[in-house]
Amino acid sequence: MTPPSLPRQASAPGAGGPPPADDGGQDRQGRRQTVRRRWVTAIIILLLVGVPAGYLAVSAQQSRESGRDKASKIGAVKVREGWPSRVQRSVYEVPIPMMASLVGYLETNNWHTSRLFVQFGTTPEELDTFLADIGTSRGELTPGVSISPHDAKVAGWSWSPKHQWAGISLDAKEPRPARDVTVDLTNPANPRVYVVSTTVP
């Protein structure tokens, strides 16, 4: 007689049964989070390195432009068109007539001296007033140029031998400036004045 068959028991996990299914969704999510963290880290590093570098580049460019601008104003060579400020005219004692024409100036500074170079056209009457204001007169001018070749070169001035030049050098006790004045009297109706005023800081 055949014995009755016993019911099969469920196989315990790890007891030779089929392996549990892998959780693929969790693995993919973990990989995405890892990639995301790496991207965030890369962006943070880029910002930490790139932003300061960009700032330094912009600052350097602005510094160069600022330096060029200052050089054009302070370290300019040769007289340029324009009026010196009232402070400059006062410090260097160069009272330019208010109706002067073709006014130009240049200021130079170093550790030893400061100079203001000025040129302008004027009328005979205003020339006399200007000379009186600086303590001299037309009668005290002597033929020739009173401005040194070095100062003339710095200012970009040249003295044509065909012109009629007259000048005077006015010394003063420090801290007042010393002034070299040269006048072009070739056209009596429109004299031109050239001044170099020198102060010692």
How are the strands ordered across the major sheet?
1-2-3-7-6-5-4
Shape: rod-shaped
- Largest sheet, if any? 7 strands, antiparallel
Structure classification: alpha+beta
Unreliable sequence segments: 10-15, 63-75
Supply Rg.
43 Å
Chain-averaged pLDDT: 81
Strand content: 15-25%
Span between N and C termini? 135 Å
* Number of separate strands: 7
Order of helices and strands: HEHEEHEHEEE
Tell me roughly what share of residues is in helical segments. Answer: 25-40%
Count helical runs. Answer: 4
Structure commentary:
The termini are far apart. The longest helix has 51 residues, at 24-74. This protein has a 7-stranded antiparallel beta sheet, with no helix packed on it. It is an alpha+beta fold and 201 residues long. A hairpin with a 4-residue loop joins strand 2 and strand 3 (114-121). The protein has helices spanning 24-74, 86-91, 124-133, 149-155, and strands spanning 80-81, 101-109, 114-121, 142-143, 165-170, 178-184, 192-199.
Which structural traits does this protein have?
alpha+beta; seven-stranded antiparallel β-sheet
Summarize the structure.
This protein has 201 residues and is of the alpha+beta class. The protein contains four helices and seven strands; from the N terminus they run αβαββαβαβββ. Residues 10-15 and 63-75 have low confidence and may be disordered.
